[in-house]
Amino acid sequence: MAEYTRPLPRPTKFSQGFWEGAKRHELVVQRCRDCGRYRHSPKLACPHCLSTDTEWARVSGRGTVYTYTVHYRAPAPAFGSDLPLVTALIELEEGPLMMSNIVGCPPEKVRIGLPVEVVFEDATEHITFPRFKPR
Q1: What is the DSSP letter of 13?
Q2: Which of 26, 37, 79, 86 could hold 21 in an S-S bridge, CB 3.0 to 4.6 Å?
Q3: Which of 2-11, 67-76, 109-118 is predicted with the least confidence, judged by mean pLDDT?
Q4: What is the pLDDT of residues 82-132, one digit of tens each?
Q5: What's the maximum distance between 2 C-alpha atoms anywhere in the chain?
Q6: pLDDT for residue 2 is more than 80
Q7: 70 close to 101: Cβ distance less than 8 angstroms
Q8: Facing residues of 87 across strands?
Q9: Is the Cβ–Cβ distance between 31 and 54 less than 8 Å?
């Protein structure tokens, strides 16, 4: 594995389950055990019913592009080799929105409503990023 030079997340007690799932190449999000709704980003309480009874649930990894932007100027020097970089808000089939990057697709082919599926980028021994590609 080549040395990863971009910024890395610092998992917290709330996000650890997400990063553990990604490392296994599984997309997991929190699900409320009381109302059954999925959510992302992880939170202490369900924003719908305020329950704190949650679990990590594997989701399909399929969704659609809700909105996106194309970066032609690097947001930080470490991203210079990734240009142009497509950052998108993905609406997962299960409902929650997730911010990620679109890969394997020229920026001019990305559009709102584009069907996508998750792929995983192993950045380090401990961190794997979910990205999305057209399906």
Answers
A1: T
A2: 26
A3: 2-11
A4: 899 999 999 999 999 999 999 999 999 999 999 999 999 999 999 999 999
A5: 45
A6: no
A7: no
A8: 69, 101
A9: yes
Which whole-number Å values give the CA distances from 35 to 15, 69, 95, 134, in the listed order? Answer: 21, 33, 14, 31
Both tokens of 42, joined, read 């992880």
Answer yes or no: pTM beyond 0.90.
yes
Q: 């990023």: which residue's tokens? A: 129
Q: Which residue has the tokens 């490392």?
A: 23
CA distances to 59, 81, 113 from 109, rounded to whole Å, are: 26, 20, 11
pLDDT score of 23: 97
Question: What does the block give as tokens for 59?
Answer: 């989701």
Residue 89 · residue 68 · CB < 8 Å: yes
Distances (CA, A) of 103 to 38, 48, 119: 25, 32, 9
